[in-house]
Amino acid sequence: TYTGSILVAVNPYQLLPLYTVDQIRLYCNKRIGELPPHVFAIADNCYFNMKRNKRDQCCVISGESGAGKTESTKLILQFLAAISGQHSWIEQQILEANPILEAFGNAKTIRNDNSSRFGKYIDIHFNQTGVIEGARIEQFLLEKSRVCRQAPEERNYHIFYCMLMGMNTEQKKMLNLSTASEYTYLTM
């Protein structure tokens, strides 16, 4: 639902058919309130105001752990990449950077299997016609203590498990590595 121009969203913890290319087309160039509340409506409103007023726009995504902040961010990026016109390699790089950031900054917690353990600021650069030309992603407040200490039933950052799972036996042997279960920091 909306509270003014603020979208109040609830994480459904399941895949819903609300985030398709058809939905992007549906919410493109619509005023907030014309269609049911949706993260695409917020993204479109920001994009429209940026182009019309020639002024920077900002989406602040906040909520408690497991609220869907990471997913909402991905959906806004997906929407902006789809409607900005030319589909260039830079748009693809922006979308593909997110899984890398998640690997280094997300971990399994008791509340969320893909919990962001850091904050991020994403600055997307558009040209005069509204086409994405670049982006800057800054991370802050990384939960550094997680590297050497996790709460019971929680895990370290995804990257450590990804590296070990991605290596074949020969590579692990060459680097003198084993499975995740052999490392205290990965099995606490």
UniProtKB/TrEMBL annotation:
GO CC annotation terms, alphabetical: myosin complex
Superkingdom of origin: Eukaryota
Ranges for domain Myosin motor: 1-188
Alphabetical UniProt keywords: Actin-binding, ATP-binding, Motor protein, Myosin, Nucleotide-binding
Keyword Zinc-finger: no
SMART domains: MYSc
Entry GO MF terms: actin binding; ATP binding; cytoskeletal motor activity
Positions that bind ATP: 63-70
Family of this protein: Belongs to the TRAFAC class myosin-kinesin ATPase superfamily. Myosin family.
Name the UniProt record assigns to this protein: MYO7A protein
Species of provenance: Sylvietta virens (Green crombec)
Source lineage: Eukaryota, Metazoa, Chordata, Craniata, Vertebrata
Gene name of the encoded protein: Myo7a_1
